[in-house]
Fold these 2 entries.
Entry 1:
Amino acid sequence: MKFTACDLPGLIVIEPTVFGDSRGYFFEAYNESLFHKNGIDYKFVQDNQSRSSHGVIRGLHFQLNPFAQVKLVRVLEGAILDVAVDIRKGSPTFGKYFSVELTSENKKQLLIPAGFAHGFSVLSETASVLYKCNQFYNKESEGGIRFDDPALNIDWQVDLKQAVVSSKDIELPLLKDCVSNFEF
Ligand SMILES: Cc1cn([C@H]2C[C@H](O)[C@@H](COP(=O)(O)OP(=O)(O)O[C@H]3O[C@@H](C)C(=O)[C@@H](O)[C@H]3O)O2)c(=O)[nH]c1=O
């Protein structure tokens, strides 16, 4: 298993060791001991799964304290562009984003600490996404930022004119209009 730190401190890309044979393949997606050795020592308490079709954009989402969440994201079927935006007030990389293609083929995972807004776009015909969270869902603590906030300038790698976005996400504020509430 390979753990790679990203340009935005706290984000880690994880690539498993895959054992292929005539039956197919096997890999460990999560190994508490190996994750702990690499500084990822959270207790994951909730697994979420969603399925979406091409051009869907979910995000950008986060939960505030005391329900701020660490997320460990991977793809079971298809391909997504996974995006994490640094919204830690005072961070030298505040407002910057990192994106990585997570696919069922490359089996990469992205570890996203609290203090990041998370979203993804679906690059394949459909995609099933699974993510572990270290804190429970709490509706009152939910926050979000517009996926097409010009200040973030995220390249979602899908046609934004045809993007499928939830009615909740289309109403989200710009980063500059919600930053004062942030507590992680
Ligand atoms: C996130 C979540 C939603 N729900 C419910 C609320 C709602 O009725 C329904 C769909 O919720 P949403 O529209 O918020 O689902 P979605 O837009 O897929 O939200 C998710 O987006 C990605 C990018 C994330 O990072 C996640 O943390 C989460 O915010 O599921 C739960 O019951 N538990 C949960 O943990």
Entry 2:
Amino acid sequence: MAKVNSNPMPTRNRPIVWTIAGSDSGGGAGIQADLATINDLDAHGCSVITAVTAQSSVTVASVEAVSPQILIAQLDVLTADLAPQAIKIGLLANQQQINLVANWLHKILLQWRERGLTVAVILDPVMVATCGDALTGSEALDFTPFKGLLTLITPNVTELATLAGRQLITPEQSVQAAQTLAAQLQVSVIAKGGDIGPNWDEGLARDLLVCHQVTGISSLHSEHAFWLTSNRINTNNNHGTGCTLSSAIAAVMAHGFVLNDAVVVAKAYVSQGLVQSYQPGSGPGCLARCGWPNTLSVYPFIQPLCEATAKTSSNNLNACGFMKLTTQLGVYPVVAELDMLQQLLKAGVKTIQLRVKDPADQLLEQKIVQAIAFGRDYRAQVFINDHWQLAIKHHAFGVHLGQEDLVASNLKQLSEANIALGLSSHSYFEILLAMQHKPSYIAFGHIFPTTTKQMPSAPQGLDKLARYVDLMQGELPLVAIGGIDSSTLAKVKKTGVDDIAVVRAVTEAVNPAAAYQALVKQWTEGE
Ligand SMILES: Cc1ncc(COP(=O)(O)OP(=O)(O)O)c(N)n1
Ligand SMILES: Cc1nc(C(=O)O)sc1CCOP(=O)(O)O
Ligand SMILES: [Mg+2]
């Protein structure tokens, strides 16, 4: 059962999303599905109709493309008044429409870029309706005019095969075709596994995400490929699934989420919509609209393609999970110096992190040994940042690792040493990756601008934090970090996040111990 969204977006703040697509008179797909999705995901939808279809759930009786004049008139009139944060492109009924929209996009994206506006463009290369009837003419469509203009293209296996110009039987062939398409069109690709072939796992719905120069995320993920796997939902009510996925991706990106996040949220949105789907006619029915997905179980499992291809059992998937924390983290200081660590322990700190970032620090091991000893003396949870091998060697209480650190670490060894684990995250995508390791807590940042560390991602802000809190409720402690101090603490607390981690708010205070105690008072008493 989906949770009720406790964080609806105020209507006046809704971002604008356009759908450039065909009308489905049956209401299950096309413009009708797109607008329902966009609205359901707290955005305002505008439509540019490319074609009118006479369509039911069992047949496409006819398709009539709109004229070039009315197509451009719709684009121009919206540009003047309702500029979008994201655009979804669905059915383009013929090559003329592809050329026209691509030309128009080329010019407008330049203009918007000059004004500092970034607009995500998601193309669903629709060719055939769910009932099997063609939506485009018999001519082969050439999408290369869109090269360099798109953020994401979302073909299913049949469309991918058409774009690749060859049959795709095995997952390996689809992977190669998706990677080739990404390079050819200079675009990220989600190759949807809905139309599975005989060599695919039929109990699962597996999509391949090929990232191409994705911005605002760690370089660890921005050029990589991932399998996104969900349980296959046993229903024939899948009319409009592709339209729903692509318009959901556009809507989520319009809210300022990075591409990888939009893809996993949209996939979860489709999964929950399929579970509650219904059949209004005698053919395949439609997805239900269940709002922003905030139940972890509907989100996909993420596996980097390189790990899947290596077929090795990863040292980094830990079936049992890490220690459950019995002492709440509360206000969690992160410090670079031992004397600061001791000073704060004396002031009553019960959880603290030693974060030494100088790899050439000659005293590193000594500092770690001493920090762990202080932790025992003061009965506090001392986490060691990054240096997991030294933490194991000297029996630390806990280790904190970032997503980049995970690549070089051995979580199996950490777990066998009974060491608590904190993992960093900066997006839905990274939260899901972190959750797969069953850590002791997940840190999420950076909430506000910070000077402590250079970040590849933008500050997350409170709206996103509230969405992550909604998702994580009751699963694991979620710790907010980045730019938190006495002036922002109350707003952070209001999101319902479990704990906060702070660097400068304590370490740069005239009296760090007093600053810590004041933050604790504010956090616990809400002052
Ligand atoms: C509580 C907490 N949250 C996040 C971080 C950042 O960890 P990481 O991403 O590995 O970056 P570095 O701290 O290593 O620069 C943290 N240390 N603690
Ligand atoms: C170390 C660190 N990690 C972050 C993340 O988002 O992963 S933000 C951050 C720095 C937090 O410092 P301050 O409290 O001084 O802003
Ligand atoms: Mg680190």
